Amino acid sequence: MKTAFLAAECVGVEGRVRNAVVVVEDGIVVSVGAREQTAIPSGASMVDLGDDVLAPGFIDMHIHGGAGHDVMEGTQEAIAALELHLARHGTTSYCPTTVSARMDVTLRALEFLANEIEAVPRRPAEELRARPLGIHLEGPFISKEKAGAHPLECIAEPSLGSFDRLWEAARGHVKVMTIAPEVPGAEEVIREAASRGVCVSLGHSNATLEQTRCGIAAGGRHVTHVFNAMRPLDHREPGILGCALADDSISAEMIVDGVHVHPEIVKLFLDAKRGQAVLVTDAISATGMPDGQYQLGGFVVEVKGDVCTSHGRLAGSVLTLDRALRNVMKFTGATLDTALRMATMSPARTLGLCGRKGVIGPGADADFVLLTTDGQVSRTIVGGRSQ
Question: How high is the mean pLDDT of the chain?
Fold first, then answer.
């Protein structure tokens, strides 16, 4: 059964298409074009989306939880609540992200998340939930000097043996791995992870410029939450941050919540990375909840307003990607289209999903978000279905 979505404007294709028709069948985009130039298949059901802007669904490649639940809880109820919450805010795909914990706790969490990823094709088609793309391992292979809120006792030196245990528990569903390139053993693990198709992200790191370049040469191609939990920028030793901003071969992510980085730094980031700039939330279980104490992996985080702390250190955020999108426009004066690329095309490219995610075009998944001109979510469509 084909469905024709009628939109006043469509982005996520080459330029904008006005008076657009997007034809979908079995959750996949069949065609997209202007109404006067695009034939609507006979018998197709029609969905008029009104005057708002149709865009690709958001992709969050770094998120720990939301709606009161953490991805490491290990319950189907927790994942369902998180995915419903994400869909309400326009996020249709995500990478559930672990935090450094005891190895046995991490292995159990990975086994559970692998089960959830493999169960997606069996879900009822009418469920309007974001879909997991694969797991993001944030730790345990990070620097103790730049651990942030990660428990120091749970940080481990990288080794092929440890990586294999994590990989096997996740049954190969590791999509992203954050690792500090300067830690002994890191280069070997980076090389192996990259060979298995993992997006290796350099972060939680005190690496020098040369150590960062070695990590990139081994297979690193992304940088985790720039400016946070990394060596500060120095004009004589640029370090990992200088490399992240200057190297056009790698992408980098930022938490644009007005807490993790100043608005002026968001401008600098956008100017430096352009098409390689990725928006993430680093959201924790407190997202969408009132102030209080919440769980992040195995430790407690205190939440007051937009600030999440553990032992005086920032510990994730309560950000949603739609708010991050609006913040980018507010902080930098960027257009909606520019901000959208940071939450759609750029993460899709970083994750190796070009053509399937982050765009609206033939062969792409029919994951859409309907936005007002100022970036408010009015409707979300997952797999060609909405509620």
Answer: 96
Q: How far is CA 158 from CA 150, 188, 352, in A?
A: 16, 8, 24
Integer Cα distance of 32 and 44 in angstroms: 14
Is 24 in contact with 30 (CB distance < 8 Å)? yes
- pLDDT at residue 387 in the model: 66
The answer to whether the CB of 324 falls within 8 A of the CB of 257 is: yes
Segments making up each domain of the chain, as ranges? 58-357
Active site residues: 282
What count of other Cβ atoms lies within 10 Å of the Cβ of residue 160? 14
Residue 263 CA to residue 78 CA, distance in Å, equals 33
User: Tokens standing for 362?
Assistant: 């033939």
Give the H or E element holding residue 25. Answer: strand 15-25
Q: How many residues are recorded in the chain? A: 387
Using CA atoms, how far apart are residues 41 and 76, in angstroms rounded to an integer? 39
- pLDDT given at position 18: 94
The Cβ of residue 63 has, within 10 Å, a number of other Cβ atoms equal to 27
pTM recorded for the entire structure: 0.97
Nearest CA to 61 among 283, 221, 239?
A: 283
Instruction: Give, in order, the Cα–Cα distances in Å from 221 to each of 133, 157, 169, 249, 259.
Output: 18, 20, 24, 7, 26
Eight-class DSSP state of 154: G
**Omega before residue 263 within 30° of 0, cis:** no
CA distances, 24 to each of 19, 369, 382, 386 (Å): 16, 15, 11, 13
User: What superfamily in CATH does domain 58-357 come from?
Assistant: Metal-dependent hydrolases (3.20.20.140)
Q: Distance between CA atoms of 365 and 361, rounded to whole angstroms? A: 9
For residues 54 and 360, the answer to whether their CB atoms sit within 8 Å is yes
Nearest to 273 by CA among 259, 261, 289: 261
Instruction: Give SS3 for 228.
Output: coil
What are the mean pLDDT values of the chain's consecutive 10-residue runs (387 residues total)?
94 88 96 90 92 97 98 97 98 98 98 97 86 98 98 97 98 98 98 98 98 98 98 97 97 98 98 96 98 96 97 97 98 96 98 96 97 96 89
